[in-house]
Q: What sequence folds into this?
């Protein structure tokens, strides 16, 4: 090998000219950036903005994603699996005011927490503008629409209703109603209006699902800064204004898989049929002795009826001379269907962040593998739960506190101060807990975490079964007292 250096002092030496031509710098042009390789000839090498990539196909993506959710078992399973584990019976709030800044007595903090919780339970049943669902059912609807259509728009109007304590209401807007108005400028794309800084300042919605006339709704109130519109979506790109359906990357795969499955089902149905054909080995028509086939056709047809082949246990049939039986046995090899389908579904699960075992609730491998699959998918569930809380639950909770304080229902000292207000609005949200494959081991692990100080009884109670430590503790005192009374009675 040619030595480019004289010695260790790194005195550079110029290589001979005949070697210079052979030296090539390997970079992306030799791989993913190649413009000569055959595998890239069918690609479209174009860079577009988020508005161009999403906006031009937004309606198509929503329509196809909606079709898959309604008519495809795998698409529906993926979305409902996420909904059930992220929201489940509902994300419950636990007030947790930042008393480090408020410096309130602990008994006052406990009182505020209890009163907020009681009032929130009342609000849960009154919050729907349609007067149909409670807050937890609305959470489920918000998440499903966000997964299917890419985003969910939420309005927070104030409406007085007879017999109800709260005016704050939640109104959901169909994503298909967010459209550009006629004559929209460059600052309005896909129904979303932004400022020169890129801040969303307004949304444009059609007056109804069948109308093309749009209404401009400001994102924030000019005087109060109150959130008029909430947009629950997953943002993936800089400058993105609208969301992308969860199934967008796998729409083509799901359609192909559905077609393949339908074809395989048809093939299996055909193969399951037992068909028998009677072949005639001669060109002559069989007729009984003395019958004239040219003049007595009706008698010939009646005679043929006597030779109908009937299949059954122990049945013996006699065929006319020259006729034979051929059994149709379609050759079908469906052995590869299951493995091929599993391979495609693993790719689909990887794109949706749902392992194959979890997507199909198919835990037939080892405990370690099943546990690993549950732990992996739980990361995605918690991530989406955090986003849902941030984009939807938390803003509604803050508006709820604003109303009960402004009406004098709840006294919160210093709430008019923006710093104190944010301290009062602090809260924790809890939802469905992770499934347990071995409850004994996982409870022991929780006990160990509490003992060594890396967790608390309250947190472990929430994560193990979604319970409330304070409620459990109070109930345990009641039960202990009753058990003591029963014990004393039994000794008398």
A:
């Amino acid at each position: 090998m040619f030595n480019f250096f004289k010695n260790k002092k790194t005195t550079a030496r110029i290589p001979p000219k005949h070697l210079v031509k052979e030296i090539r710098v390997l970079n992306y042009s030799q791989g993913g950036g190649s413009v000569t390789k055959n595998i890239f000839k069918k690609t479209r090498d174009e860079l577009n903005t988020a508005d161009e990539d999403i906006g031009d196909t937004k309606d198509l993506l929503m329509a196809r994603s909606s079709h898959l959710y309604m008519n495809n078992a795998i698409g529906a399973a993926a979305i409902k699996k996420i909904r059930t584990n992220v929201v489940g019976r509902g994300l419950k709030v636990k007030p947790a005011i930042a008393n480090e800044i408020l410096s309130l007595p602990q008994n006052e903090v406990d009182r505020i927490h209890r009163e907020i919780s009681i009032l929130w339970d009342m609000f849960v049943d009154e919050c729907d503008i349609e007067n149909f669902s409670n807050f937890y059912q609305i959470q489920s609807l918000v998440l499903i629409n966000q997964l299917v259509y890419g985003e969910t728009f939420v309005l927070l109007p104030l409406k007085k209703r007879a017999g109800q304590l709260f005016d704050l209401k939640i109104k959901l807007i169909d994503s298909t109603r967010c459209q550009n108005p006629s004559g929209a400028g460059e600052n309005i794309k896909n129904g979303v209006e932004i400022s020169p800084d890129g801040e969303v300042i307004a949304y444009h919605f059609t007056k109804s699902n069948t109308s093309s006339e749009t209404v401009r709704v400001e994102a924030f109130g000019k005087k109060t800064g109150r959130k008029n519109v909430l947009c629950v979506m997953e943002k993936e790109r800089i400058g993105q204004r609208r969301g992308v359906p969860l199934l967008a990357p796998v729409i083509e795969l799901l359609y192909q898989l559905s077609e393949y499955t339908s074809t395989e089902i048809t093939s299996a149905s055909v193969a399951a049929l037992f068909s028998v054909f009677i072949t005639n080995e001669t060109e002559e028509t069989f007729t009984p002795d003395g019958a004239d086939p040219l003049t007595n056709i009706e008698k010939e047809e009646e005679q043929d009826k006597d030779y109908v082949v009937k299949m059954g246990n122990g049945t013996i049939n006699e065929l006319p001379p020259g006729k034979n039986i051929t059994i149709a046995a379609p050759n079908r090899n469906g052995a590869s269907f299951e493995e091929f389908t599993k391979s495609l579904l693993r790719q689909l699960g990887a794109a949706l962040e749902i392992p194959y075992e979890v997507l199909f609730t198919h835990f037939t491998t080892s405990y370690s593998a099943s546990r690993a699959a549950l732990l992996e998918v739980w990361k995605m569930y918690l991530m989406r739960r955090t986003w849902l809380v941030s984009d939807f639950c938390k803003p509604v909770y803050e508006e709820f506190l604003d109303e009960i304080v402004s009406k004098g229902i709840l006294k919160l000292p210093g709430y008019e101060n923006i710093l104190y207000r944010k301290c009062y609005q602090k809260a924790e949200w809890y939802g469905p807990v992770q499934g347990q494959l071995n409850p004994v081991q996982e409870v022991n692990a929780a006990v160990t975490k509490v003992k060594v100080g890396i967790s608390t009884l309250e947190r472990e109670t929430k994560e193990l079964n979604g319970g409330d430590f304070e409620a459990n503790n109070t109930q345990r005192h009641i039960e202990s007292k009753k058990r003591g009374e029963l014990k004393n009675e039994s000794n008398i």
